[in-house]
Write a structure and sequence with these properties.
The structure holds two protein chains of two kinds. Chain A contains twelve helices and 19 strands. Chain A is of the alpha/beta class. Chain A is globular and about 65 Å long. Chain A starts with 5 loop residues before the first helix and ends in a 14-residue tail after the last helix. By secondary structure, chain B is mainly beta. Chain B contains one helix and seven strands, in the order βββαββββ. In chain B, strand 1 and strand 2 form a beta hairpin. Chain B is globular. Classes of the chains: A alpha/beta, B mainly beta. The interface between A and B is medium-sized, with 22 and 25 residues.
C-alpha cells in the first residue's frame, strides 16, 4: 500500500459507514471539508457526526454539462471538468445510487500491461493517476500495488506474454516474463508442478498492478466533485434526450427536464439505450460477467493472479476475502442473475491453480454488465450529434481506466480538441476500418 | 439455467448451444459500399427486450436455429429453423417456447 497508513485505513472504514445511498441532508453547507488524522482523533473522542461527503440538490432547469451515469467514469469526468477546466455548472445523473453499476461490481484490479501501444499509454496514465488519487482527493482509496501475474499454460500464451512484455517495456511500463520458480516464490500456494492438466510455464509479471477499494474511488470522486460545485443527482433516470437542429438541447429525466448543450454518455450496460435516444448507433453488445467472493481468511495471497486459459482471476482483499472473476457469459443479456455453471466452472479452475483452497466457501456471487466492442477497446469522444459525447464500450476494462477517462473526456469537452491519448478510440474507427485489436484485455476469449 | 427449445431436439440446456448473435440482414457484397458493409459487420441493436438471434446446437444436432429471447428475463418464446434450411413448400417449422409437460421454453 503506498499512500495510506493505518490511520487513513481506519478513516476509510469510518467513511464507509456513510454509505453510497442518497441520504445527504440539504443543510450541509458548501464548505470543503478536509479529512485529517487530527480530525479522526477529535471525532473519536466527541463521537460527533461526520459531515456528509456529498450533498443532495433539486435539479436545476439548466446545466452547462450533464453527465449520464454516476459511476467512476461519470464522476471523474465531472470532477476533472471542475478541477482542471473550471466548468462547475455540471450535473451527474444516475438512475440508481452512485457506483451501483460496473463501478461497484468489478473486481477492482488496476494494471497497464496491455498489448497495443495505444492501450498501454492510456492505461499507464490511469495507473499514474490512481497512485496519487488518495492524496489528490483527500480520500483513502486503499490502492495496494501488490503486483499482477498473468499465467501462461501453453506455448502460444507464453509467446503472447513475451510480446506484451516487450511492448510494455518500450512504453516504459514495468513488465517482464518470469518462470515457474519465481512464481512459486511470489505465490507459495500455487501448484506449479509439471504433471497437472494445465502446467504453469511462466507468467507476465507486472509489479505496478494491484487492487483498490472500488467504492472508495467512486465516493472520493463524488466528494471531490461536490466540493467543487458539481450537482450529483441520484435516483434520477434519464428518459429522453432532446436534439434540436442536430445539436443536443436538453435531457428529460424522471425528476423533470433539464436544458443543456452538452450530454456525456458515461453509462455501462445501458450505453446503447442512451445513445439510441439521440439516434447514434454503436457496435456494442452487452454481456453479463459474473464474479464471486469467499469467506475471509488470513492474508496468504499477495499478487493478483490471472489465467486467461482457465478464465479466472483471483486476488485477496485487505479484509481477507478472495475475489474471483471469470470470463463474460456466453450470450448477451441484461439479466444480472448468477448461474450454477459459472460457480462450478470457477471453482474447478481455481482449484486447478490452488488445490489447497478446496475447503473454502463462497459467500456470494454477483454479476455486472459489460459493453463489449468488436476490438475490445472503448468508444470515446464525439458523435454525429453535436454536443453528445460518449465514454462507453468499456467491456471488462472500465474500472481501471476511470481516472484517465475522466481527465481526457473533461479535456475534450472543455477545449473541443481530441486528446492524443483517446484519439485511437473514436466512434468513427469502425466506419473507417481502423480497429484496435486489444488482445491484452481480460475475461474475453481471443 | 436456461432451456432453449431446439426445433430438432426439443428443450435442451443452453450450455449445449453456442450463441452466434443477432439476426441481421446481410447486404449483397457486390452491391454494398464499404461503410454499409462495416455497419453490418459491427453495429448491433443490443435491445432490452425481445430479440431474434441465431444459435448453434454445437453439442446436439449441430444445426443452426433462430430463437426469440427476452434479453432482460432470458425467456425464450419461440425457436425455428433458419429459412435456408426449410424443406421446400414448408413455411415454417416452429417450436413454441412453452412446451407443456416438459417444462420447456423458459427460464432459470
Amino acid at each position: 500500500m503506498r499512500a495510506p497508513g493505518a490511520i487513513k485505513s481506519a478513516l476509510g472504514a469510518v467513511m464507509s459507514s456513510v454509505g453510497p445511498y442518497d441520504r445527504n441532508g440539504s443543510t450541509n453547507g458548501h464548505k470543503p471539508y478536509r479529512y485529517s488524522a487530527f480530525d479522526l482523533l477529535r471525532h473519536g473522542f466527541s463521537q460527533a457526526d461526520w459531515p456528509r461527503a456529498w450533498r443532495r440538490h433539486d435539479p436545476k432547469s439548466s446545466y452547462d454539462v450533464v453527465v449520464v451515469g454516476g459511476g467512476v467514469h461519470g464522476l471523474a469526468t465531472a470532477y476533472y471538468l471542475a478541477k482542471n477546466h473550471g466548468i462547475t455548472n455540471v450535473a451527474v445523473l444516475d438512475k440508481g445510487y452512485i457506483g451501483s453499476g460496473g463501478s461497484g461490481r468489478n473486481t477492482a484490479i488496476i494494471r497497464s500491461n496491455y498489448l497495443t501501444p495505444e492501450g498501454i499509454r492510456f492505461y499507464d496514465r490511469s495507473v499514474k493517476l490512481y497512485e496519487t488519487l488518495s492524496a489528490d482527493l483527500n480520500y483513502n482509496a486503499m490502492f495496494a500495488q501488490r503486483g499482477h501475474l498473468t499465467l501462461a499454460h501453453n506455448d502460444s500464451s507464453l509467446r503472447t506474454m513475451r510480446w506484451r512484455a516487450e511492448v510494455n517495456k518500450l512504453e516504459g511500463v514495468d513488465s517482464e516474463v518470469i518462470g515457474p520458480d519465481e512464481i512459486k516464490k511470489l505465490v507459495p500456494f500455487m501448484d506449479t508442478s509439471e504433471d497437472v492438466r494445465y502446467p504453469i510455464l511462466g507468467a507476465l509479471y507486472h509489479p505496478p498492478g494491484g487492487i483498490i477499494r472500488h467504492d472508495a474511488v467512486v465516493w472520493g470522486y463524488a466528494r471531490g466533485a461536490d466540493a467543487l460545485g458539481v450537482h450529483i443527482h441520484q435516483n434520477t433516470e434519464v428518459t429522453g434526450i432532446d436534439v434540436t437542429g442536430g445539436k443536443v438541447s436538453g435531457v428529460r429525466t424522471k425528476r423533470g427536464d433539464i436544458a443543456t448543450p452538452v450530454v456525456v454518455n458515461c453509462t455501462a450496460g445501458w450505453s446503447t439505450l442512451i445513445s439510441d435516444m439521440v439516434g447514434v448507433k454503436m457496435p456494442v453488445s452487452t454481456f453479463p460477467l459474473q464474479a464471486a467472493v469467499t469467506e475471509p481468511v488470513r492474508p496468504f495471497l499477495n499478487p493478483v493472479i490471472v489465467s486467461g486459459t482457465l478464465h479466472v482471476y483471483v486476488s485477496q482483499t485487505d479484509r481477507g476475502e478472495l475475489v474471483f472473476g471469470a470470463s463474460v457469459d456466453p450470450f448477451t443479456s441484461y439479466s444480472m442473475r448468477g448461474s450454477l455453471e459459472f460457480t462450478e466452472g470457477l471453482a474447478g479452475h481455481v482449484l486447478e491453480l490452488m488445490p489447497s483452497l478446496a475447503k473454502m466457501r463462497l459467500l456470494r456471487q454477483w454479476s455486472g454488465l459489460c459493453d463489449m466492442t468488436p476490438d475490445f477497446s472503448p468508444i470515446m469522444g464525439v458523435t454525429p450529434v453535436a454536443g453528445f459525447f460518449v465514454d462507453v464500450g468499456w467491456g471488462t476494462y472500465g474500472f481501471k481506466a476511470g481516472p484517465v477517462s475522466g481527465e481526457t473526456m473533461a479535456a475534450l469537452i472543455a477545449t473541443g480538441k481530441m486528446p492524443d491519448l483517446i484519439a485511437p478510440f473514436s466512434l468513427d474507427r469502425f466506419a473507417s476500418g481502423s480497429l484496435m485489436g486489444e488482445k491484452g484485455a481480460a475475461a474475453v476469449g481471443h | 439455467m436456461i432451456l432453449l427449445p431446439c426445433p430438432y431436439c426439443g428443450p435442451r440446456n443452453v450450455s449445449e448451444f453456442r450463441y452466434v448473435g443477432e439476426v441481421s440482414e446481410r447486404p449483397d457484397p457486390n452491391e454494398t459500399g464499404v461503410e454499409e458493409w462495416r455497419t453490418f459487420l459491427y453495429t448491433r441493436n443490443n435491445p432490452v427486450g425481445w430479440t431474434t438471434e441465431t444459435w448453434f446446437h454445437s453439442a446436439g444436432c449441430r444445426q443452426h436455429l433462430i430463437a426469440e429471447r427476452h434479453t432482460m428475463t432470458n425467456e425464450v418464446r419461440a425457436s425455428r429453423l433458419p429459412e435456408a434450411q426449410l424443406p421446400e413448400g414448408q413455411e415454417e417449422r416452429a417450436t413454441g417456447g412453452n412446451v407443456a409437460g416438459d417444462g420447456g421454453g423458459a427460464i432459470y
